[in-house]
Amino acid sequence: MLRNAVIGVDIGTSSSKGVLVGLDGTLLRSAVREHTPARPGPGRFEMDAAVWWREFTELTRELTAPADAAVIAVGVSGMGPCVLLTDEHDEPLRPAVLYGVDTRAVRQIERLDEQLGPDEILARCGSALTTQAAGPKIAWIAEEEPELYARARRLYMPSSWLVRKLTGAYVLDHHSASQCTPLYDTTAQEWYTPWAQAVAPGIELPALAWSGESAGVLTAEAARAANLPAGIPVTTGTIDAWAEALSVGAQRTGDLMLMYGTTMFLIHTVPKPLTSPSLWGTVGALPGTRNLAGGMATSGAVTNWLRDLVGAADHPELLSLAEAAGPGANGLLMLPYFSGERTPVMDPEARGVIAGLTLSHTRGDLYRAALEATGFGVRHNIEVLEAAGGDIRRVVAVGGGTQGALWTQIVSDITGRPQELRSTSIGASYGGALLAAQLVTDASVDEWNPVRRTVTPRAENTARYDELYALYRRLYPDTAAVVHSLAALQDR
Fold first, then answer.
1. By the 8 A CB rule, do 17 and 429 touch?
2. DSSP character string of 397-408
3. What pLDDT, on the 0 to 100 scale, is given for residue 107?
4. Residue 492 pLDDT greater than 90, yes or no
5. Distance, CA of 74 to CA of 229 (rounded, Å)
6. Mean pLDDT across 422-445
7. How crowded is residue 481: how many other Cβ atoms within 10 Å of its Cβ?
8. What is the DSSP letter of 190?
9. Residue spans per domain, the chain
10. For helices 106-116 and 118-125, what crossing angle results, to 10°?
11. Where is the Carbohydrate kinase FGGY C-terminal domain (predicted)?
């Protein structure tokens, strides 16, 4: 007898991941397809939408190859906010421009701020215009590629593109829309037509729905391509970090989710709308929820860079060396701004800095400094969150970086915050599967994914990390002029 199950697929920055999950939350199978975004110029990150659909179908075919489960619903998520523009026939016009790691639209941000007013944008949209926002990226395409833009009719992100391919529906979730600043009004929770027409003229914006709502059912054509049953429901989906938060139950008021991945993401659930020019105020993935969020441009990306740079076989080898290095990395301090920085610095021209290097330092010291840099960045974001009115009562960690004990321990030691770890930390694809299950059952995240352990801060490291954090906060302003000049040289 076949076991009923659901599938969740997430399109991430460095890979697409899929999971087959039983209706009780048991992870039956998982699959991954790695990819690398194109970098056509300094500060530019793009990806071909054909990759998203191809990898989705490859993942679902792999997950369903053993014919031992009956898939009854599908959930999707993806990196974002991204900008994929299509023509009147829904053919992509160019590769998608990715989220805040793509910093090309600085001039458009400045122009839109002057045109619309930064205070008005923050009040209506919940977030200031930054490289994270989708609106300026649309404006960049309109200004820099006008002939192409003249044929643009629709706007997609990875999750909504999958929904379109699977169901034929043109729909975007409210949370993703709230990161399309300045196109969406977070108070009215609808597209704001005057600014949408000014920033994205000629674009038919998608219908809006909540992440867990059904966008439609699988068409016969999509079912054949994905080896799935026709007629099963598909969630509207959302941006990956918000699906990660759902996967570990971090959507209650006072919760803070830390997502350990290629980038570090922070999502704080608040009882009422809060704004800060250094953070992102958004609507949540679920109806009635509000978030104040932050994101570092790199975290795991720096550790991957170091692994490749030093020729290490794998991360466990470097984690062991980093643990032996001890707190403070033997006097090394790193700014992890290797792709500029998002919150709370909001500086696309920031660059990575490694201070204190000597001939005695080792691979382990460098790797430890990278892990600690993430911890210092998280602490900086937390301080800004609380200064904006946030009230953090519980921290829940998720993502691939939680697999080893060292990274989460370092972050708890630096921030002084315990972190709750759930049994399954696979992340967004599992969150998508949960939303899919909730379309057809009364699945509960606490039953699906109970708490496994809690990481507690170690008091013996507090003084050392407080001292280093003070230096970390000084390092950016003390080096900003130099790295900005270097960034300008890199752009030539």
1. yes
2. EESGGGSSHHHH
3. 96
4. no
5. 10
6. 96
7. 9
8. E
9. 3-241, 250-424+458-492
10. 90
11. 257-437
CA–CA distance from 121 to each of 86, 109, 135, 244 (Å)? 27, 11, 12, 28
Contact 8, 433 (CB under 8 A): yes
Whether cis (ω within 30° of 0) applies to the bond prior to 42 is: no
- The identity of residue 155, as a single letter, is L
Mean residue pLDDT across the chain: 96
Q: Which superfamily, per CATH, for 3-241? A: ATPase, nucleotide binding domain (3.30.420.40)
Quick: pLDDT tens for 366-414.
999 999 999 999 999 999 999 999 999 999 999 889 988 999 999 999 9
Mapping DSSP to helix (H, G, I), strand (E, B) and coil, where does residue 254 land? coil
CATH class of domain segment(s) 250-424+458-492: alpha beta
Q: Do domains 3-241 and 250-424+458-492 have the same CATH topology?
A: yes
Rounded distance, CA 111 to CA 94, Å?
24
* Tokens representing residue 289 in the block: 């929820």
Contact 152, 87 (CB under 8 A): yes
Tell which residue, 434, 412, 20, 21, has the closest CA to residue 250.
434
Q: Which two tokens stand for residue 402?
A: 């939680």
- The one-letter amino acid at 279: L
Q: How far apart are CA 205 and CA 193, in angstroms?
A: 10
Beta strands 171-173 and 207-209 are: parallel
pLDDT at residue number 404:
85
Two tokens at 310?
Answer: 């030093």
Please name the residues in contact with 153: beta carbons below 8 A apart, sequence gap of 6 or more.
86, 87, 88, 202, 203, 204
Nearest-angstrom CA–CA distance, 365 and 233: 49
Q: How far apart are CA 152 and CA 155, in angstroms?
A: 8
Query: What does the block give as tokens for 335?
Result: 């700014």
Residues 6+ apart with CB under 8 A from 63: 7, 18, 19, 20, 29, 30, 31
Per-residue buried b or exposed e for 443-474, using 16+ beta carbons within 10 Å of the residue's own CB: bebeebbeeeeebebeeebeeebeebbeebee
Strand pairing partners for 92? 86
